[in-house]
Amino acid sequence: MTSRPSAASSSDPGHQVTGVAIGRDEAERLAVVLKALSDPTRLQLLAMIEASPNGEACVNDLTEPLELSQPTISHHLKILVSAGILARDKRGLWSWYTIVPDQLQTLRALLPGPTFLRNER
Amino acid sequence: MTSRPSAASSSDPGHQVTGVAIGRDEAERLAVVLKALSDPTRLQLLAMIEASPNGEACVNDLTEPLELSQPTISHHLKILVSAGILARDKRGLWSWYTIVPDQLQTLRALLPGPTFLRNER
């Protein structure tokens, strides 16, 4: 691997990648949000909350459609709140969950592929 | 938890969540893509490939800026290829990697928050 054909050489200036396009801190912050999202149940919970009439739901609204226990749903909601994707509002005995737009907007802006994303706007 | 105040009741028709807004299959497929993305090094690799002059890079272009070994970079690139986020084109001795727009566009369309995403357009 010490020699390579010049036609495909990565030392060709036209191909050279010169730096790190996203800093480590930003990449780590973004990875935390993506990891919180990367679970099918959590994606279904978010879609259900977003689709609910007032854009909010409490744990009892979410258990039956997904056929999961309240502790399981609560566990997933907690992860989404910790990642800043959901906001929790305690009213009386119940906590209501809404999607925080900021975190997902930031994610969308930072997702690789800014060129084609820009072209779409 | 058997009684709750009617003002905050989830059985209020205005608050009722009636179904599953994303099917399980779709959620599982999306979760696989998100999981592949949820690593800071992989996010940095994608950003570097996207920012490179021709939108493509080979493993040697990527090792030095990130100060990681070639096997480590290759491991991360393989995960991104498996998830359909990167395409690999072997030319001569080297493999060149480009971002596949489709997978990220689908991800973006399916990400929770369609209401505010629609409002932005």
Automatic annotation (TrEMBL), chains A, B:
Record keywords: DNA-binding, Transcription, Transcription regulation
Record-annotated HTH arsR-type domain positions: 22-119
Transmembrane segments: none
Matching Gene3D superfamilies: Winged helix-like DNA-binding domain superfamily/Winged helix DNA-binding domain (1.10.10.10)
Domain of life: Bacteria
InterPro entries recorded: ArsR-like_HTH, ArsR_HTH, HTH_ArsR_DNA-bd_dom, HTH_MetalResp_TranReg, WH-like_DNA-bd_sf, WH_DNA-bd_sf
Name the UniProt record assigns to this protein: Metalloregulator ArsR/SmtB family transcription factor
Organism for this UniProt entry: Kribbella sancticallisti
